[in-house]
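Deliverable D5.2: sample structural annotation.
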Amino acid sequence: MGAPRLNGIAALGLQAYTRVYILGIEKGKQVISSINKAAAVMCVLALTSNAYAVAPDFMDKLAPESRPTEDKIRDGARRPYQVMQLLGVEEGMTAIDVRAGGGWYTRVLSAAVGPSGKVISQAGPRALERENGQAARDLAASLGNTEASFENVGDMEANSADVAVTALNMHHGNAERSIPGLRDILRVLKPGGVAAIIDHIGLPEMDNSRLHRMLVADVRQWLLEAGFEIVEESDLLRTNADDHTLSVVDPILGRNVDRFLFVVRKP
């Protein structure tokens, strides 16, 4: 099922939600707390006036004190609600966070699919080198509908997931490594399943390896060679605050980095 389109009230609520975290970075934590209430009210209005695919308590699950403050601050640039809607994530789905890292998308997917859904937070075998993967295990246990996986994606059950996300991982590889990795994601998706491929945009003339960036054209080609159908090349995570010449961890950017977002489908 495709993601529903937002009406005017929903769009306004999401704009407010995004501004909460931009203001939080500039003005401090107190502003996050006060403005978030207004944004939450607007989002409630949006939910009552528009078809809603993700779990109905999605926004509530992103708000609690138990969620890391750093994750909340990143919401403004990463736009969790909008990305889930773009992917058509629905309550009850099975989702995979590929190379989950610190688990930002694991938490978002967990909130989106709800208690009737399932998230596999794929940490990979190397995560076992740190306290036997305890951080990934603890995260999964805290969410209730999530399991930590220390397998490679290629070893996971085929045709088992409705949706997958891999974010900020592609720039670590080249065509030789990345195309087989994308084929592994394709294999684990159900027929018609979708994936989001997200990373930092680079320029041809820059040392993108040093800057932790990559060329959009490379990823587009790799996706096609892997066998995916490109559904959309979204500008949802684009920003003109980044001229692509700085490292993505440069404090000047404040993690507000220009990112591509491909939505792809398994034929």
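Annotation notes: The chain has ten helices and seven strands. Residues 1-52 have pLDDT under 50 and may be disordered.
The annotation will be released with the project's public dataset once the embargo ends.
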